Amino acid sequence: MREKALLAFGMLALALSLPPFPLAPCIIIVMTLLTLRGARVSLGAWLRFVSIPAGFLLTAGLSMMFVISSHGISYAPSSLQPVLGLLLRSFAAICCLLFFALTTPLGDLLSALRKLGMPIEIVEISLLMYRLVFLVLETANAMNMAQAARLGQHDRKQQLRSLGLLLANLFPRVMSKACRMEHGLAARGWSGEFHVLQAAQPSSFIRLAWISLLLGLLLLVGVFYA
């Protein structure tokens, strides 16, 4: 946990504080390789997670390269380099956060937050919200599959009608399941705190040394080209 946090947030600090050329491409390559090869996250899963923020960045970057004036919309050549630097810096930060998010179990993250002194109420609410997000997705997926099995999506009109019915019934279904989950927790004597089993993982001095060396090398590269 400490090694991943040092690597991810150290890279994030370098990406945000130093010039993007040529440091940001180096961070993108390193963090992507560590995520795909080191953590063995599949390429398809990584692309699914990165596509939404990358699309947002691309849309924002394209809009920043044009100027709206009384003569209409015109391209601003002088904005190309700043926009490219901003996109590279932002994408490097996204790669750092994705590495940490895709390789850190929620139990480890909550345990680390407790050790850092975060109030237990905030930690428990975060865990419940995390569970409820997946509860909403599971319920919506089950309702969608049931509609498809009943030929509720064979044409555009039926698809729109089925979507309206799904949205109208999703919230009551989710609230019902959430109430049942609350009753189940109360029946098990829940006192307001989740105790998550976490295996002891001592930090490796060798890994910390290699990570520190990598961060130091990238820091030198960024300072040299600043």
Automatic annotation (TrEMBL):
GO BP, sorted A to Z: cobalt ion transport
Membrane topology, from the record: Multi-pass membrane protein
Keyword Cell membrane among record annotations: yes
Location within or outside the cell: Cell membrane
A GO CC annotation given for this chain: ATP-binding cassette (ABC) transporter complex
Keyword Chloroplast: no
Pfam families: CbiQ
UniProt entry keywords in alphabetical sequence: Cell membrane, Membrane, Transmembrane, Transmembrane helix
Transmembrane segments: 45-68, 80-102, 122-140, 205-225
Family matches, as InterPro entries: ABC/ECF_trnsptr_transmembrane, Cobalt_transport_CbiQ, ECF_CbiQ
Entries under NCBIfam families matching the protein: ECF_T_CbiQ
Family designation: Belongs to the CbiQ family.
The protein's name in its UniProt record: Transmembrane component CbiQ of energizing module of cobalt ECF transporter
Organism: Aquitalea magnusonii
